[in-house]
Design goal:
single chain, 117 residues, alpha/beta, Glucose Oxidase, domain 1, 5 strands
Length: 117
């Protein structure tokens, strides 16, 4: 949903934030397209980190030649020079941990942790 807000007055100020991304039912090439749009927006240098949750049912069909989701995420995000933590317990499917919005948190890219409080 946030990708659809790019370039509109509805997108909040992203300066200094940690983006939390997850998705459901999107194949890797679509996620690549969304992340390319984010890169092209010029907004990624404003953020402090990225927390990646679950990407449920985001594999390409067996008959479709495709990069893996992990490859797409590494390619599109790996050179940003900010902490990125993946496999966090939030998303559309499964049990979800509390994901605080609007409070200060620490994203530890070395230990792979997102903590607050």
């Amino acid at each position: 949903m946030a990708t659809h807000l790019l370039g509109t007055p509805l997108l909040p100020d992203l300066t200094g934030v940690i983006l939390a991304w997850e998705d459901v039912g999107e194949v890797p090439y679509r996620i690549d397209r969304m992340l390319t749009q984010w890169r092209s927006s010029g907004l990624l240098p404003l953020i402090r980190g990225i927390a990646l949750g679950r990407f449920s049912r985001c594999e390409a069909p067996a008959q479709l030649p495709s990069l893996t989701l992990e490859t797409v995420l590494r390619d599109r995000l790996g050179d940003l020079g900010i902490p990125i933590v993946g496999d966090l317990p939030f998303g559309h499917e499964g049990a979800n941990a509390v994901l605080p919005v609007g409070i200060e948190v620490c994203l530890d890219g070395e230990q792979g942790l997102l903590h607050f409080g």
